Each structure stands twice: as structure tokens, then as C-alpha cells.
Amino acid sequence: MADDNKDFEPILVGFFCNWCTSTAADLAGTTRLQYPPNIRPIRTMCSGSVDPIYILRALLSGADGIIIGGCNPGDCHYVSGNYKARRRIAGLKTILDTLGLENDRVWLKWISAAEGQKFAVTMRDFTEKIKELGPSPFRKNWSV
To answer: How far is CA 102 from CA 78, 130, 132, in A?
Structure first.
């Protein structure tokens, strides 16, 4: 991490499935697990409902990283929504490469409702990874 980024606190946006990852976030909170407060959670009904345009919009508006959380493959409340999310994110990462933006700024993770600990660890890991990458080149547009 560069010296000029030592005080950098990333702005992170999370699109979390209502049935699994949002519930895991609730579990992490109720069991008082610690993780960085950088994430701005957005509850969605399914990870498959997250359109890549939403992710691009957040990045172009200055978010430093985006994480999409969904049910484990085969356990989707809507049968195949997480497979749809996986296809969409793979395509989006190609677009990010074309734009010259690190595709590590977008993560897709499967976190079930009972995995509060995994949620907290994932949020810590994601925050640290984005700190390593530094501020998004689009961050200047972000209004906190």
C-alpha cells in the first residue's frame, strides 16, 4: 500500500441477497462480530437481480469496491438466481478490464444465512483488498 493511501478508507457498496447474505449480516451484528464499517449494504431479493448497470453506476460514481453476496449455488430461493449473478459478474469483469479498472474491485461471494462469521471475515478481507488497491480513479465524483 502506498504511503499516501495509509489513511484511505474505502467506500464500499454491497448488494446482498435478502435470504442469505443479508441474513448473515444480521447474524454477524446480533452476535457482535467485528468488521469494518465501510460497507453500504443494499438488500436485494436475489443476487441474480443485481444488474451490472447498478455496479457500473456505483463505480463510476466513485465507490471504491462492490461486493455482491448471494446464496450458495444450488440453494437459491429463486432456484437459479445465483447462477445468473455468476454469469453477469463474469461478463462485467471483462468490461472492467476494458475500462482499465481493476476487476478485483468487484467481488461475488456465496454466504449463507447461517454464516455470520464468514460474512464478517469476508467484509474484513474485502476492505483490506480495496485498501491495497487504493482509491478508485472515479472517487472524486463521490459525494459522501
So the answer is: 31, 10, 12
